[in-house]
Specification:
The protein is an alpha/beta fold. The chain has eight helices and eight strands. The chain has helices spanning 58-61, 80-83, 87-92, 103-109, 119-138, 175-182, 184-193, 205-208; strands at residues 18-20, 26-28, 62-64, 70-73, 112-118, 148-154, 157-158, 201-202. The relative contact order is 0.11. The mean pLDDT is 87.
């Protein structure tokens, strides 16, 4: 696993518990000030700058530290690989306001038998889910050393031209157009039987017919 950029310029994401002083010094907030919650706002459009949407909310960004120092909150938020690496733990205990997950529920539900995902999803995203699991295990938050006992990846459905579907290439297929012409059941059956589960295959309109 290699280092990655761990921030996004977006509104909805886990906030960093960091503030910045006027001289550019980064200060981590005290643990008693956690968790940091996102504000409820009517609008959170992009700022039109390199700053994220949270930068528009002055009353949240500008704070005064206990020693009287003026500071600004970090307005970037954590990327999807933060929340998506551990959100399954919250599904086990979503109303728990004191713990990430209760030990009893995590012990019962915390080890998934089989995880199914796309090949890219398994090799990119799931390595971070495993990294977080190992960390949480080391600090005693979870009881299972491994998050998933088995991985099975599905092959990509390629475009009819044999290339990966991409908006940039303009070769994507809107499922609704297939459904409108052939119906839901035909579409489902075609995708189930178009090829081996773990291999990439190009879709074919003739195959649907």
């Amino acid at each position: 696993m290699q280092d990655r950029v761990f921030s996004r310029q977006r509104y909805r994401g886990e906030p960093f518990p960091i503030v910045w002083t006027p001289d550019g010094k980064a200060i981590a907030l005290d643990e008693k000030e956690l968790p940091i919650t996102l504000p409820d706002v009517e609008n959170y459009e992009p700022t039109g700058t390199t700053e994220g949407p949270l930068a528009n909310i002055d009353e949240r960004v500008n704070i005064t530290l206990p020693d009287g120092t003026k500071a600004k909150r970090e307005t970037n938020t954590m990327p999807g690989r933060a929340g998506s690496s551990r959100y399954r733990l919250r599904y086990m205990d979503p109303k728990n306001n004191k713990q990430l997950v209760s030990p009893e529920r995590e012990k019962y539900r915390g080890s998934v038998d089989v995880y199914v995902g796309g090949a890219e999803h398994v090799t990119r995203h799931m390595i971070y889910a495993r990294f977080w699991q190992k960390f949480l295990y080391d600090i005693g938050t979870v009881t299972h050393d491994e998050p998933f006992q088995e991985y099975h990846y599905v092959g990509l459905i390629m475009a009819e031209d044999g290339r990966k579907m991409s908006k940039r290439r303009g070769n994507t297929i809107d499922p609704d157009t297939v459904i409108n012409e052939f119906g839901h059941d035909t579409f489902r059956v075609y995708e189930m039987f178009m090829g081996p589960f773990d291999q990439a295959i190009a879709r074919s309109t003739n195959g649907v017919k």
